[in-house]
Amino acid sequence: MKLATWNLNSIRARQARLSAWLAAAQPDVLCLQETKITDDEFPHDALRAAGYHAATFGQRSYNGVAILAREPPADIARGLGDAEPDDEARIIAATVRGLRVVCVYVPNGQDLASDRFPYKLAWFGRLRRYLERTATPDTPLVVCGDMNVTADDRDVWSPEKWAGHIHCTPEERAALANLAAFGLVDVFRAHHPDGGVYSWWDYRGVSFFKNQGLRIDHVLATRAIAARCTACTIDRDARKGQDASDHAPVVATFADV
Predict the structure, then answer these.
(1) Beta partners for residue 99, in sequence order
(2) d(Cα 222, Cα 234) in Å, to the nearest integer?
(3) What is the DSSP string of 213-244?
(4) Helix (H, G, I), strand (E, B), or coil: what is residue 18?
């Protein structure tokens, strides 16, 4: 199975790029974040024509997640399903070919003084509890998406410049590590232990061309599934050209899934 995750930053603005990428990359499953569109506006017909079924959890103008798959996704679940009041479309899960796929768009956090920062940390805790309720470390499971945090300094183009900034704080990294402690393996890091490869570059300046980026998009898999990962790459070419998202797709290939 070829599985990818991509913060598209508006499917309405980038539908043509999405269609072209699907035709070229041919993933079996694609998890999207920041679709920024309601479910009834989602381009289901166009994606079906391209060979993909879509499970969506949308929201007008903000957030929004979706799972595209060549086979119809089953057992679709939207939201964290806990008692916390929350009207933000940030998580969708579905089963494809026996693999439970959880697509997440973790809150950005804005800055350390914002009330969105504690919300982000709390959301990570809610996600960990969600996994504890719905899966086990032995479940064939992938949790992927824009997690808006770097795992460590290997995922930062300049750790000195980013020290103390959002995406790179000890609190965020501890929250990501706590999520992984459920029994998840960072499959990209397993294939690229040296770091220096990024999935997001700021629109401002020429950060992409200077490769001044961060790796904040992750594919985490339970150990049995991670052991089947034969390759994991970031498609930098998808970040090039006009009307590109500020993120590039992360693509993982799993044998016998």
Answers:
(1) 96
(2) 20
(3) EE--EEEEEEHHHHTTEEEEEE-GGGGSSTT-
(4) helix
Using one digit for the tens of pLDDT, what is the confidence trace for 45-73?
A: 999 999 999 999 999 999 999 999 999 99
**Burial, 192: exposed, middle or buried (Cβ in 10 Å; 0-12, 13-18, 19+)?**
middle
What are the phi and psi torsion angles at 91 (to 5°)?
-150, 135
Q: Is 146 a catalytic residue?
A: yes
Confidence of residue 224 (pLDDT cuts 50, 70, 90): very high
The secondary structure of residue 191, as a DSSP letter, is H
Cα–Cα distance measured from residue 14 to residue 148, given in angstroms and rounded to the nearest whole number: 21
Q: What is the pLDDT of residues 1-16, one digit of tens each?
A: 999 999 999 999 999 9
d(CA 213, CA 126): 28
Buried b (16+ CB within 10 A) or exposed e, 70-85: beebeeebbbbeeeee
Which residues on adjacent β-strands are paired with residue 185?
A: 221
Among 146, 155, 186, 217, the active-site one is 146
**How much is the pTM?**
0.98
Candidates 52, 105, 130, 198; catalytic one: 105
Count of Cβ atoms closer than 10 Å to residue 240 Cβ: 11
**Residue 206: CB atoms within 10 Å:** 9
What is the DSSP annotation of 65-123? EEEEESSPPEEEEES--SSS------EEEEEETTEEEEEEE------TTSTHHHHHHHH
Identify the residue whose tokens are 């001044």: 212
Q: Is 177 exposed, middle or buried (0-12, 13-18, 19+ CB in 10 A)?
A: middle
Residue 105 is a catalytic residue? yes
Name which of 114, 125, 188, 121 is nearest 151 in CA terms.
188
